[in-house]
# Entry
Amino acid sequence: MGAWLRLAWRLQRWEVAFAAIGCLGLAGLAAWQAIEMRSMLTACGTPQAAAACGFVYPFQETNGTAVQLIKLGMGLAPFAVGLVLGVPLVAREIERGTAQVAWPLARSRVRWLAWRGLPVLALTVAVLSIAALASDTMVQAYQPKTEIGFLDYGARGVPMVLRGLTVMLLSVAVGAALGRILPALLVGIALAIGLQAGLDAALVHWLEPIRIASTPDETYDGALVTDVRYRTPEGLLISEMEAGRIWQANETVAPADQVTLEVVPYGIGPDRYWEVVLRESAMLAGVAILTVGASVILARRRRPV
# Structure
């Protein structure tokens, strides 16, 4: 196993370095932000209190820009790592012609694919797990009074790791099919964008939306809001379109006679976060199994160039 790990490093040292440095760098920045924000929160109420202590959610003004940039990086990391590590795995061997030597020496293309792919797979999981954990910690530190639930979904926690792993496996299959790094990378980017769009679109459909907050005093921070309705003073629930007509009518009446509407959000509450994660994980596991099967078939049938 050690020999295959060394071989994987020799063949993909730049890709491995990119993934490791990128993810560990983001993780370090996220951890630093979390420590700094918690220190600021501890200082609230003391003479050294930061200006952000006066806000409902601290740090929005002092750390907001840095946190948003790190979140952006975390959102891109699963796709960047998956593409960079997955595309060259088979495509480089075919493109450079080394497959003509590597495959016969391995005695089995499936065995060769397993020994080449498993170290890269483990690295993908490892670096993304570290980044996802740090991102989770930063988001909670940034909004310490909130159950984070679906906040920054896909850019932290388990979904971030599973999405990156799926992209990596898809990229391996694309590289095996095309046998050229640049075309495979372009196709892989298109597939990654499609996967991201599909997962985001499916997110609101994993569970039946319900009323998140039944009273005005309840909070729905961290919930996945799919629809917003409005309650009239008579207790009737109306759509946003009907509410718009009421607001338009209010413009022509005196303030004392205007109708006040209460916002009633519908969606998936933060307490059901893990149900959604499990359903998405099952779907991604299916995609991963099909992709691994496709990679094996392509590797066995592919002729070295």
Q: What stands out?
A: The chain is about 65% helix and 5% strand. The radius of gyration is 25 Å. The first strand starts at residue 210 and ends at 211. Residues 109-142 form the longest helix (34 residues).
